[in-house]
Design brief:
This protein is α+β, with helices and mostly antiparallel strands. About 25% of the residues lie in helices and about 25% in strands. The chain has 19 helices and 28 strands.
């Protein structure tokens, strides 16, 4: 049973909400002001016979005064507060942070699950549990919910946005969401619940997790150094996933606030600037109890709701375990149109009639995203426990449409899950010789000194795991999934230039604190790699934070790590060469091959020429090339230097520096020059340019590659 708040603080807040003074309460009760003051300060408590009089004065029942688990309804009722327009006439036509992400439930799953992982309570060793509930409302269920969120008070604001919807993007999205609700008579709710998490702790306005999520933008207050988020942008996916721009919140706190932990409720609405009844409004609005300490008691703050209220708002939590429930009102999945509906779906939509609010499609996409991005966090083995449990369910008017589906990492990612468990259980091998084995290799990451100082802080040993991938579900094959402390997949990349005939495999790179507590410089590597991630946290490379805290060239350490990983993978998956006595020796002896006379080899040096070129733009804006060189017959082959340039209409072509230049076959690279193996007729090399040497953005340029004799000067 929930523990009630101390009587003194509770009574003080109720007086504020009812806008009564201690003297006014004392007069109504026929007592002295000193008696009421003693209750407020905790020096004494009222006699049981006085409790009934206090309840009557506050306009509530005797049970509420005794239990003190909720606020009274006296004085200032729950309402919407819309931020007034700026005095200087400025206009915000939407929250820019929401445009950092697509209206995609898979992006939502990645960002919200990452946030829940970051807020996991670690003391008890248990995983954080995250449940996604899709709930479609129609008919009287929809009417009851609209009444609970005070829809009649919101409707004039939505109407004002719809009137100017054609002029800006956010307005068009909101207008479409409102029209869908009225024309199709339905509304999709998507609730994200986490348990065994910290909850939105802290004051409504001062620094804390509550204010960071509900009141502020671009603020990230994470609980640990291994946290996935660092920009404070991930929470914007909640509002971006709502066609109505509306999210309701119910949080159970791990640390009491105002003496309470359960049912801390607030709503936040994100709309563009609008004008209603001649009054301008800046954008956001909050659903809450008016704060009596704000000017005119206008600003809405969170309130401690009763069980009936959270039920009407569809925010009831299954237990008193700490964590937060986010209810996305009017959820839609624009990116889901790319996948369409399953042929086996009983309610599959006809071509041309695809629906961004189909809960069955969203259900499947949520399960797929959680298995793809969080398989490692859901995997345990040996002494290592899973960090996460995740599930998805779908309802319509309270009835089950798709039952709760627990995401199984071994079903979603069988090969990678096997590899990670083998690492945790200490059953890895040095080289793959049998099916089902997992090979492990240490990969060095040399960490730079901060502040741009030359030298190396130390070498972190990341762990590379590789195993065979023969099942149909292990797709795509021959990829490396890279992750760090919170075990969310950060980087996914195919291994290039694999030998012909390589058996299919899957690989995992554990870096930072994911490599284990005993890994050297694990904490420093965690900090370095976290700074190398963009807001989407889907790769490691050049970022502004990496440049400011370390140096403009710090990202090259990560490029070197990638090169080492790919090289180790190629070595581990290469098939051992057969000796001349194995296999077809008897067959070769039985064959007679007529020798042709050798052609005369020209004397003097020969000059190789460029025969083929493939070029792409990398994640960090660099040019990535793979080139093939044709070599004439000759006793001496002239060394050649590849030179990368930008194509221009006039004048000298700007020369680009190489960040990486690697020989693939038939040659070696020394100081940027290709030295060819005697007797070869073909050679191949690859390289990537140094982004810092690019005078303009890569997407606006064309690349020219030349081979020059000598050092290419």
């Amino acid at each position: 049973m929930e523990t009630g708040e101390e009587f003194g603080p509770w009574l003080a807040r109720q007086l504020k909400l009812a806008r009564k003074t201690q003297a006014e309460l004392a007069e109504e009760l026929g007592l002295t002001r000193a008696a009421v003051s003693a209750w407020i300060t905790g020096r004494s408590t009222p006699r049981p016979t006085v409790m009934q009089d206090i309840a009557r004065a506050l306009g509530t029942d005797l049970g509420t005064v005794h239990t003190r688990t909720t606020d009274t309804q006296a004085g200032l009722p729950v309402t919407w507060y819309h931020r007034p327009g700026y005095p200087d006439g400025g206009r915000d036509l939407g929250n820019a942070a929401a445009f950092a992400f697509d209206a995609d439930v898979q992006v939502l799953a990645r960002e919200t699950c990452q946030n829940s992982l970051d807020e996991r309570l670690t003391e008890n060793g248990r995983p954080v549990r995250v449940r996604y509930t899709l709930h479609e409302l129609t008919g009287e269920h929809l009417d009851a919910f609209r009444e609970a969120i005070l829809w009649n008070d919101l409707f004039p604001h939505y109407s004002a946005v719809s009137e100017v919807a054609g002029n800006q993007k956010v307005g068009r999205v909101v207008d479409a969401g409102v029209r869908d609700m009225y024309e199709k008579g339905r509304l999709v709710l998507l609730r994200v619940d986490d348990y065994n998490a910290s909850g939105l702790t802290g004051d409504d306005y001062a620094d804390g997790k509550f204010a960071a999520v509900v009141r502020r933008q671009l603020e990230s207050l994470k609980s640990g150094p291994a946290a996935g988020g660092s920009y404070g942008l991930g929470k914007a996916t909640l509002w971006a996933s709502s066609a109505l721009g509306l999210v309701l919140i119910n949080s159970t706190l791990s640390v009491p606030h105002e003496g309470r932990t359960e049912r801390r409720v607030i709503g936040r609405l994100e709309l563009p600037w609008r004008q209603v009844d001649g009054e301008p409004y800046a954008g956001p609005a909050w659903l809450g109890r008016p704060d009596p300490d704000s000017p005119g008691a206008m600003v809405a703050r969170s309130w401690w709701a009763d069980e009936e209220t959270v039920a009407r708002l569809h925010l009831t939590r299954e237990s008193d375990e700490p964590g937060t429930s986010f209810l996305i009102v009017g959820a839609h999945d624009v990116a889901g149109l790319e996948g369409g509906s399953s042929e086996d779906d009983d309610e599959a939509l006809e071509e041309g009639d695809q629906d961004t609010r189909d809960i069955r499609t969203m259900h499947r996409r949520l399960v797929a995203a959680l298995g793809r991005d969080f398989w490692a966090a859901m995997t345990g083995g040996g002494s290592r426990l899973p960090l996460l449990e995740a599930s998805v369910r779908s309802l319509r008017n309270g009835d089950v449409v798709l039952p709760e589906e627990q995401v199984d990492p071994s079903a979603e990612q069988p090969a990678r899950t096997r590899a990670l468990r083998a690492h945790y259980e200490g059953t890895t091998v040095d080289r793959l010789t049998e099916a089902g084995q997992v090979a492990a290799r240490s990969i060095p990451l040399k960490l730079p000194l901060s502040g741009g100082a030359p030298g190396t802080l130390g070498t972190h040993q990341a762990v590379l795991l590789i195993t065979d991938a023969t099942t149909d579900t292990d797709t795509p094959k021959n990829w490396v999934h890279s992750l760090r402390g919170n075990r969310m997949t950060v980087r996914k990349a195919v291994v290039p230039n694999l030998p012909l005939g390589t058996n299919p495999f899957q690989a995992v790179l554990l870096a930072g604190e994911a490599a284990g507590e005993s890994a050297p410089f694990a904490h420093e590597a965690e900090e370095f790699l976290r700074a190398a991630e963009p807001p989407e946290h889907d790769r490691w490379g050049q970022t502004e934070e990496l440049t400011l805290r370390w140096s403009p060239s710090a990202y090259r350490r990560i490029n070197k790590l990638t090169t080492e990983v790919n090289s180790a993978v190629r070595e581990l998956v290469a098939r051992p060469k057969r000796s001349s006595r194995e296999g077809g020796e008897a067959l070769r002896k039985a064959l007679t091959v007529k020798n042709r006379p050798k052609a005369k080899v020209p004397s003097g040096p020969v000059v190789p020429t460029l025969n083929g070129l493939e070029a792409t733009i990398g994640d960090d804006g660099e040019w990535r090339i793979t080139a093939e060189v044709s070599i004439p017959r000759g006793d001496e082959i002239v060394p050649m230097a590849p030179v990368a340039q930008l194509d221009v209409r006039s004048g000298a072509r700007p020369k680009l520096d190489w960040a990486e230049l690697v020989a693939v076959e038939g040659c070696e690279v020394e100081d940027g020059t290709l030295h060819f193996t005697p007797g070869v007729r073909r050679a191949k090399f690859r390289g990537s340019t140094d982004v810092t040497s690019h005078p303009v953005r890569t997407t606006l340029t064309r690349l020219v590659l030349e081979l020059r004799a000598g050092k290419g000067e």
